[in-house]
Amino acid sequence: MSFAVIQMNSSAEVSNNLASAGRLLKQAAEQGAKLAVLPENFAAMGCKNLLALGRAELLGSGTILAWLRQTARELGLWIVAGTLPLPPDGQPEGKPRACSLLLDDEGRTVARYDKLHLFDVDVSDTQGQYRESDNYAHGEIPLVVADTPVGRLGMTVCYDLRFPELYTALRLAGAELISSPSAFTEVTGAAHWQTLIRARAIETQCYILAAAQGGEHPGGRQTHGHSSIVDPWGRLLCEQARGEAALLARRDADEQTAIRRRMPVLNHRRFSVPRLVTGTTE
Predict the structure, then answer these.
(1) Which among 58, 79, 193, 268 has the fewest CB atoms less than 10 Å away?
(2) Does domain 2-268 match CATH 3.30.465.10?
(3) 3-state secondary structure the chain
(4) What's the family (predicted)?
């Protein structure tokens, strides 16, 4: 079965973004995709009041979640909903998380992954600082893996790509594909994007579904684009440099099984990174 990654150039205008996403998801479904991945911040790139937006969605008065459910049902399509700002379930006053939802083809939420690693970096002298933690809280559940029509899906977001131990853990949890909705800056994307997505595919022997933002956004932010699907051997199956796109590829389950059998890297592991928990004792 086929899957798709969607590339967008989103703005802060939710209605315009949803219209663009709907058109691209329809294109993917008409070409045979059973699952599609939207990019990070697909609905509200540069929105100034994330707290209010997320609270409205959680309380049922927003437009994004309702639109996602309806679109999934109408297209008969599983959707990885990039990210949207959502507070923790049952906590409408809480600081939003960068939340990636998996919806099935009847519009039901199957899984929720809240971005674990937040982008607090000094990109360059010209690109300036990014402090994602000013607006978002860290996710608390690191491993989210769910069954889909195209295989067992592990969920990540953007900056997570720089933390390979997360991807190894998803493979150990049974992932066959891993979604990575992203909005890499032009500077970091040009330097590292393709290297990172291919490395994560090779080391996990998973398909990497890397849906990206590509273009200029509110405030002058430039994103790198180059949405891609990478196979378990590290081959780039499709790529779009800039502009909107719906890119499709097919999973070859037999080949993936053969790759894992011929090179059984999980069986060869002699070292793993322990999870260190620090705190105070009384």
Answers:
(1) 268
(2) no
(3) CEEEEEEECCCCCHHHHHHHHHHHHHHHHHCCEEEEECCCCCCCCCCCCHHHHHHHHHHCCCCHHHHHHHHHHHHCCEEECCCEEECCCCCCCCCCEEEEEEECCCCCEEEEEECCCCCEEEEECCCEEEEHHHCCECCCCCCCEEEECCEEEEECCHHHHHCHHHHHHHHHCCCCEEECCECCEHHHHHHHHHHHHHHHHHHHCCEEEECEEEEECHHHCEEECCEEEECCCCCEEEEECCCCEEEEEECCHHHHHHHHHHCCHHHHCCCCCCCCCCCCCC
(4) Belongs to the carbon-nitrogen hydrolase superfamily. NIT1/NIT2 family.
**Which residues, including other chains, have CB under 8 Å from residue 70's CB and lie 6 or more apart?**
107
> Which of 34, 47, 57, 158 is labelled catalytic?
158
Contact 7, 227 (CB under 8 A): yes
pTM of the model: 0.94
Of 34, 40, 57, 186, which residue is the catalytic one? 40
Residues 6+ apart with CB under 8 A from 166: 116, 117, 142, 143, 156, 160
Catalytic residue among 47, 57, 99, 115: 115
Q: Evaluate if residue 279 carries a pLDDT over 60.
A: no
Residue 115 annotated as catalytic = yes
Q: What's the pLDDT tens digit per position in 150-160?
A: 999 999 999 99
Strand, coil or helix: 257: helix
For residues 228 and 63, what is the distance between their CA atoms, to the nearest angstrom? 28
User: Is 40 an annotated catalytic residue?
Assistant: yes
